[in-house]
Amino acid sequence: MALHFEVSRFLYREARLLDEERYDDWLALFTPDVRYWVPGVENRMRRDPLGSVIRSHMAYFDDNFTDLSRRVARFQAPTAWAEDPATRHVHLVTNIEVDAVAAEPGADPLRDGEEPAAAGELLVRSVLVSYRNRNHDEEDVLSARRTDVLRRTDDGLRIARRTVVMGQSVLLSQNINTFL
């Protein structure tokens, strides 16, 4: 229970940092070797062995730490016209599940796109709802299932890998200038 509480607090704090546009503090929650992957979701028949997430197909984001740093810098730049006035965000994180060790035989199988955790890392699954409001009438609700691999460091928990599988196969948003 203590581990679940620690991980939940970490994810809730991360959501608050994003909502408060504290992007440098948010970026500090990642390891230097992070992979932040948001694949496209394909509508496929249940019997299709490829599934709805295919590693070699399109991704909205497939970022490393340098890519995330560039995106943060772009958000903070005075020339980021899409963010002036700022988009208002509310990130809701729920359904948090924590596995303290890598998946063992007989454990829950990994979902599409998930990567196993290494020894000493935490495999964390959660559900995210991201509400975005821009200007007077632009409103988006993005839902996703997330799988994080958290690593304990001298500075606390850090995100080593994040996979975000969107609930939508077609994004109707005018843009996806957000972090999930």
Automatic annotation (TrEMBL):
Enzyme class: oxidoreductase
One Pfam family in the UniProt entry: Ring_hydroxyl_B
InterPro entries for this protein: NTF2-like_dom_sf (IPR032710), Rng_hydr_dOase-bsu (IPR000391)
Oxidoreductase in keyword set: yes
Domain of life, per lineage: Bacteria
Keywords (A to Z) from UniProt: Dioxygenase, Oxidoreductase
Gene Ontology MF: a single term: 3-phenylpropionate dioxygenase activity
EC number(s) per entry: 1.14.12.19
Record keyword Oxidoreductase present: yes
Family: Belongs to the bacterial ring-hydroxylating dioxygenase beta subunit family.
Protein name per UniProt: 3-phenylpropionate/cinnamic acid dioxygenase subunit beta
Organism of this sequence: Pseudonocardia acidicola
